[in-house]
Amino acid sequence: MPNVSMTVNGKAVSAEVEPRTLLVQFLREKLSLTGTHVGCDTSQCGACVVHVDGKSVKACTTLALQHEGADVTTIEGLAQNGELHPMQAAFKEHHGLQCGFCTPGMVMSAIDLVNTHPNPDEQTIREGLEGNICRCTGYQNIVKAVKAASDNMGG
Amino acid sequence: MYDFNYHRPGSVDEAVGLINEDAKILAGGQSLLPTMKLRLAQPSDVIDLGAIPGLSDISVDGSSVTIGATATHASVAASGAVAGAIPALADLASGIGDTQVRNVGTMGGSVANADPAADYPAAVVGLGATVHTNSRSIAADDFFTGIFETALEENEILTKVSFPVPEAAAYVKFANPASRYAIVGVFVAKTADGVRVAVTGAGGSVFRASAMEAALNANFSASALDGIAVASDDLNSDLHASAEYRAHLVAVMAKRAVQAAGG
Ligand SMILES: Cc1cc2nc3c(=O)[nH]c(=O)nc-3n(C[C@H](O)[C@H](O)[C@H](O)COP(=O)(O)OP(=O)(O)OC[C@H]3O[C@@H](n4cnc5c(N)ncnc54)[C@H](O)[C@@H]3O)c2cc1C
Ligand code: FES
Ligand code: FES
């Protein structure tokens, strides 16, 4: 079996994988990072979004082997020294979640959105989160949370 | 998904050398991997273009914009040079799918895949682009040959596409609200050699609307399209839209595109 090496949440990792192993399977099953969820497995829902070299991608629609040498961040890698990332804190503060299933992917996409569009308006936030589906909240509080976080992310 | 041998060549030549009857090229994987999960494709070998240096380059000179095969939709959308030379092209790339699809999906993958509802084919045909492969150059009008079919041979890799800079152009689509694929998309370009109108999403493959081109050559304004109907006979009919509705949308999107292009 081929070997893949990458950096995940700041740590160098390396493992043998079957070529068909998806990035999300590698993270959940090999590294036990189960914060990244699988909702649809068909690139629609965004529950599996992680950052690869700083950009949000759907980890269910990419092979682990495609990311040889990459720098991957998952929801587990956001909090620093026990302190939530401003986006996580804003989701908590503004009730941007109910069941929480979509939340890891939603937070990862929202951070990419604010990184590429500092100070987004409501329209930009809604369009920027098009790849993430939430079945609970109706999105209102998610949009509020992203807006609030963008104010705290130096944007 | 069935298992396969994975290859990560460092050059186009090496990639071409790895191709066999049952192999598949992998670019962004946004179309290929879903197909493999459904077991509609089960390649013995997957040849990943992702590590080939220079294959994602974007360059702009006075007369054309050249986009490398593995340039992502996000990089084309964010390129100031592309937006400066052919704003309609940057705009088209920015409207594909969602952020995550744009971050990995590639121009070459979209053009080689030739999905009847894909956006890029409208720009390739609408601008009269040239498709370059490892072995030859193919004119846009000869490239798309049917539903998911192109002029590419089995052992051919698309390396880049050169889009001539038009005098004016615009792309307008009626998007599927879930996926953003074009239910109907129309690319209109005013070029030195006349007006080109390319329609995607409506038929089995992108096509040119010649009656519209003739009318716009005489008078480049939306009103020139009044009364020009598109026959619905060969158009797609599915749960999203009937053939008759798509025919109607072609006329509406074409007028909006002409207006957006300043006509
Ligand atoms: C949720 C979702 C929404 C989407 N919405 C849209 C949309 O609104 N509009 C739109 O146009 N598309 C849309 N797409 C498709 C997306 O643009 C894909 O990225 C694109 O169609 C394929 O590009 P890829 O780089 O992912 O190619 P891959 O999936 O890697 O490859 C696709 C096919 O092309 C072949 N191929 C790839 N590169 C080459 C090459 N250089 N030479 C020869 N053959 C090659 C492969 O062998 C394969 O058969 C969507 C996809 C998803 C998952
Ligand atoms: S699980 Fe990846 S997009 Fe739904
Ligand atoms: S909080 Fe339940 S799916 Fe979003």
Task: Characterise the protein shown here.
The complex is a heterodimer of chains A (155) and B (263). Chain A has 155 residues and is an alpha+beta fold. A five-stranded mixed sheet of chain A has the order 2-1-5-3-4, with helices on one face. Chain A has five helices and five strands; from the N terminus they run E-E-H-E-E-E-H-H-H-H. In chain A, strand 1 (3-8) and strand 2 form a beta hairpin. The termini of chain A are far apart. Chain A folds into two domains: 3-77, Ubiquitin-like (UB roll) (Roll); 86-152, DNA polymerase, domain 1, CATH 1.10.150. Chain A has helices at 23-30, 86-93, 103-116, 122-128, 140-152, and strands spanning 3-8, 11-16, 49-52, 55-58, 71-73. Chain B is built from eleven helices and 14 strands. The longest helix of chain B has 18 residues, at 243-260. Chain B has helices spanning 12-18, 32-37, 73-78, 80-85, 87-94, 99-104, 107-113, 120-126, 140-143, 210-218, 243-260, and strands at residues 5-7, 23-26, 45-48, 58-60, 64-68, 130-133, 137-139, 144-146, 149-150, 158-164, 168-175, 182-191, 194-200, 207-208. Chain B has 263 residues and is an alpha+beta fold. Among the domains of chain B are: 1-47; 168-260, Enolase-like, domain 1, CATH 3.30.390.50. Chain B has a five-stranded antiparallel sheet with strand order 4-5-10-6-7. The model of chain B has no long low-confidence stretch (mean pLDDT 97). In chain B, strand 12 and strand 13 (194-200) form a beta hairpin. The A-B interface holds A 2, 18-20, 22, 41-44, 46, 49, 55-58, 61-63, 65-66, 68, 109, 112-113, 128, 130-131 and B 1-6, 8, 26, 29-30, 33-34, 36-37, 46, 48, 50-51, 74, 97-101, 103-104, 178-180. Flavin-adenine dinucleotide (FAD) is lined by residues 24-32, 49, 69, 96-97, 101, 105-106, 108-110, 112-113, 115, 118-120, 152, 157-158, 179-181 of chain B.
